[in-house]
Amino acid sequence: MRRPLEDIRIVSLEQYGAGPFGSMHLAELGAEIIKIEDPSAGGDVGRSIPPYTAEDDSLFFQSFNRDKSSITLDIRTPEGREVFRDLVRTADAVYSNLRGDVPAKLGIRYEDLKEVNPRIVCCSLTGFGMTGPRSGEPGYDYVLQALGGWMSLTGEPGGAPQKTGLSLVDYCGGYVAAISLLGAIHGARRDGVGTDCDLSLYDTAISLLTYPGTWHMTADFEPARTRHSAHPSLVPFQAFEAADGWLVVGCAKEKFWQRLTVVLGRTDLADDPRFATFADRARHRDELVPELEALFRTRTVADWLAPMYAASIPCAPVRDVAGALTDPHTLERDLVAETEHEAFGQVRSLRSAVRVGPPGADRVPTRPAPAMGADTDRVLRELGYDDATITALRSSGALGKG
Fold it and tell me: Residue 330 half-sphere exposure, CB side, CA atoms within 13 Å?
């Protein structure tokens, strides 16, 4: 079966995490991602992220750049700019994640490229977008979690502000960019006219405030941290400490609460008018939760999970990363990619959660992230450049030294 995006070519000026994360999903679905790396800057900065590094590469880079091609090209030189324009003529999109004022400086907006290719989509994922008072500021996940209100909601009440354990603004921003890019390419193919996509990590972080944001703006709700990661209104829905570890129990429907009282051996709680409904339990949270916590501490995680699974109550052990990666469900869902690398040997990384095909369908084999500039000559030859022209470009410095 052909992959669904095999007829899409994206020229990418991406770096670090958010941008490469977004385009990697498209690459796994078959899109050709031609990753332009600036030779004067040493390529994508992700290649040098410690602690696991090799020459011009790292396991961080391998995590975000599988199935792509890499060319070295300095588009600020006249020669490099001409090569870039030739690439734009053959592409569906130019994709970047740079500071908000950089796309204009580099000339990678639709206004700059429409004469080269009227159907080109210019997708820019920046920290703060290309408009607004912060548009010239650099934006990183940690900064956006602070500005977006996330850190005020994360952690235990009374503790220091906390970020999420993963760079979720970056990764969600990558998904936003991938969706926007595909939508814009569809529109350009339908209408014959391309466009800009002005996306930002700031917009992503703010939009993900979702229902607490709606509650706050509409009903003056004041979001606050909750003890043991409890849901702000559904009780019980939180982490509980058992005799030998932690588990999460989520009564997202009334029927789950009824079933939980049976598992706990406390059906009297279901009959107590203080705990009859979600609204009742939320009002009497401080009376109910201590009773539940005392009950959960009397048995092990495994002892609790078995009857809760049998009763179809949403629950899970709180695992470490190793436990998550070795779960039989992780392996059965084919979420681990295995590639060979000259320096690192076998690299095991995580595949995209994006899938197209029937349940259980085999995935297309994945390729390791490319060495810097590994595809330069091939891509240039596909554009019609001969050996003499490529040599001249290299001598001019447009492709880097050497």
Answer: 12
Which residues lie across from 125 on neighbouring strands? 199
pLDDT > 60? residue 402 = no
If phi > 0 it is left, if psi is from -120 to 50 it is alpha, else beta; for residue 373 that is left
The residues annotated as belonging to the active site are: 231
Where does 158-219 have alpha helices with state H? 168-191, 201-207, 210-219
My answer on whether omega of the bond before 138 falls inside 30° of 0, hence cis, is: no
Q: How far apart are CA 332 and CA 339, in angstroms?
A: 18
According to DSSP, residue 102 is labeled H
332 CB-near residues (< 8 Å, 6+ apart): none
Nearest to 124 by CA among 133, 116, 113: 113
CB 24 within 8 A of CB 64: yes
Tokens representing 110? Answer: 């639709």
Q: Tell me the per-residue pLDDT of 113-150, one tens digit each, with 9 for 90 and over.
A: 999 999 999 999 999 999 999 998 989 999 999 999 99
Burial code (b: 16+ CB inside 10 Å, e: under 16) for 22-36 equals: bbbbbbbbbbbbbbb
Give the residue from 205, 196, 9 showing the smallest Cα distance to 103: 196
pLDDT tens for 233-251 read 999 999 999 999 999 999 9
Preceding amide of 236 cis, omega within 30: yes
Using pLDDT thresholds of 50, 70 and 90, give the confidence band for residue 60.
Answer: very high
- pLDDT tens, residue by residue, 20-45: 999 999 999 999 999 999 999 999 99
Report how far residue 126's alpha carbon sits from residue 103's, in angstroms, rounded to the nearest whole number: 9
HEC readout, 333-374: CCCEEEEEECCCEEEEEECCCCCCCCCCCCCCCCCCCCCCCC
